[in-house]
Prior knowledge:
CATH architecture of the domain at 2-151 and 182-207: 3-Layer(aba) Sandwich
Radius of gyration: 18 Å
Largest sheet: 7 strands, parallel
Low-confidence stretches: none
Distance between the termini: 34 Å
Helix content: 25-40%
CATH class of the domain at 2-151 and 182-207: Alpha Beta
Number of helices: 9
CATH topology of the domain at 2-151 and 182-207: Rossmann fold
Order of helices and strands: EHEEHEHEHEEHEEEHEEHEHH
Shape: globular
Oligomer: single chain
Amino acid sequence: MMLLVVGAGGYLGGEVCRQAVAAGEQVAGTVHRTPVRLPGVPSYPLDLRDRVAVRDLITRLRPDVVVNTAYRIDDWAVTADGAAHVALAAAEAGARLVHLSSDALHAGRPAPYGDDVAPTPVYPYGAAKAAAETAVRAIDPRAVLVRTSLIVGDERSKQVQLCLDALDGRARLFTDEFRCPIAVQDLAGAVLELAAADHAGVLNVAGPEAVSRAELGVLVARWRGIDPARLATARAADQPQARPADVRLDSRRAVGLLTTRLRAVSEIFAA
């Protein structure tokens, strides 16, 4: 199986490449700003906003599977339009598409979100991810769209780095914003399973344990041997811009489909 990982320079994209190479798969990656430094993974510069360039590269490489992990929080053209460009090129090339989506497209509510709950975005990034899903599903109904949550692991994780910044007073973590963090290794393993399967449509793939961002900061502090009392916190409800509040993804369908174990965040940071 030949995989093309779009966004291979990112935290998740790099882990997908690493695991795929370890499994003996042929892998290539696209990059925009961050180079790929993995033996056996050729990388190709690509601007997802350029529809012709996306099509030309995928047509030339002819991958069996395209895994799109790329996004940019502040750029609709990359997150939404870029997803459509990748989906169209993958469909034309006959490649299976695994598209990474996000819990950010939900507004938040007390009840967990199932796989098929329609997006209700409340801020621009969530709207871009919702638009990306709409485009991908319209272009390629066979694609699988993986809705995930905060991706954690080591210091390369943006979420872990945010926690460390809050422990140094450079950021604040919300006490009233809940998510279901997932280890980057678990998510990459799930993505590669889905790449080789025939599941189509939206699938929640997140950790089984919901925590606030502040509670995540406490777990990271203890993992690093830092006093959790140093953690700077705030309330999302007090911020001027609306944010998704309580977004808990119900991943029971994924648990039944996958052999990859989706660990609770408290287990991830227990070691």
